[in-house]
């Protein structure tokens, strides 16, 4: 059987892939104390950690979202897909010492996957019910003795599942694509730049 995510532990690379964790809402389903709700638009989101939530959607949220420790900015980070991610860290409680202001409730930090030192490639996808399709691929490997690179991409499509009574057309459809590029330079065994 599949192992359940241990209480209080953030998802790692294997669990992210195995469980299809690809956005903040999916993370919130698996991490105790992290809650996520959204409204009708992609800008109307309400993340909270341990009940610390901003009620007004136009106010700065109390939960910060970061990629490799860099703030994604208000509004953008809550729609980030977890593409080519090694792990996702969720820290609870005020985190201004680690991440700066506006993280009174806590922070979510996506840690990028580093390029591999040997050549690797993967391709995958699925065809789902209701016209939901996905194609993803990753290519990684060395470019020289001290440099390695990776590129990952994902494309998704979803047919509409609601019928607009005024026009008769399906709504709720959408296409999305994402790409991630990584480059690592390791001139010595004790120094590297990612």
What can be said about this structure in brief?
The chain is mostly beta strands.
Please explain how this structure is put together.
The chain has 194 residues and is mainly beta. The chain contains three helices and 13 strands. The protein has helices at 13-19, 24-28, 96-99, and strands at 34-38, 45-49, 63-67, 70-71, 85-92, 106-112, 120-127, 133-142, 147-158, 162-163, 170-171, 174-188, 191-193. The strands form four sheets. It has a five-stranded antiparallel sheet with strand order 7-8-9-12-13, with no helix packed on it. It has a four-stranded mixed sheet with strand order 4-3-6-5. Strands 1-2 form a two-stranded antiparallel ribbon. A hairpin with a 2-residue loop joins strand 3 and strand 4. The longest helix has 7 residues, at 13-19. The two termini are 36 Å apart. The relative contact order is 0.13. Residues 1-8 have low confidence and may be disordered.
Q: Given the structure, what is the number of helices?
A: 3
Largest sheet, strands/sense/barrel:
5 strands, antiparallel
Let me know the number of strands: 13
Q: Roughly what percent helix?
A: under 10%
Order of helices and strands: HHEEEEEHEEEEEEEE
Instruction: Extract low-pLDDT stretches.
Output: 1-8
- Regarding quaternary structure, what we see is single chain
Structural class, by secondary structure, is: mainly beta
Mean pLDDT: 78
**Broad shape:** flat
Distance between the termini: 36 Å
- The portion of residues forming beta strands comes to 35-45%
What spatial order of strands do you see in the largest sheet? 7-8-9-12-13
Q: What Rg do the Cα atoms give? A: 19 Å
């Amino acid at each position: 059987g599949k192992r359940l995510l241990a209480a209080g532990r953030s998802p790692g690379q294997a669990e992210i892939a195995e469980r299809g964790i690809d956005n903040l809402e999916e993370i919130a389903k698996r991490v105790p104390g992290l809650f996520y709700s959204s409204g009708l638009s992609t800008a109307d989101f309400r993340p909270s950690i341990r009940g610390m939530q901003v009620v007004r959607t136009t106010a700065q949220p109390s939960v910060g979202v970061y990629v490799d420790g860099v703030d994604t900015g208000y509004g953008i980070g809550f729609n980030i897909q977890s593409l080519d991610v090694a792990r996702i860290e969720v820290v609870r409680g005020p985190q201004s010492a680690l991440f700066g202001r506006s993280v009174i409730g806590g922070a979510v930090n996506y840690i990028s996957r580093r390029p591999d030192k040997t050549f690797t490639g993967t391709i995958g996808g699925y065809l789902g019910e209701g016209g939901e399709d996905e194609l993803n691929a990753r290519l990684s490997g060395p470019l020289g003795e001290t440099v390695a690179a990776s590129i990952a991409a994902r494309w998704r499509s979803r047919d509409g599942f609601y019928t607009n009574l005024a026009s008769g057309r399906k709504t709720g459809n959408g296409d999305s694509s994402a790409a991630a590029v990584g480059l690592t330079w390791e001139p010595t065994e004790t120094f590297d730049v990612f």
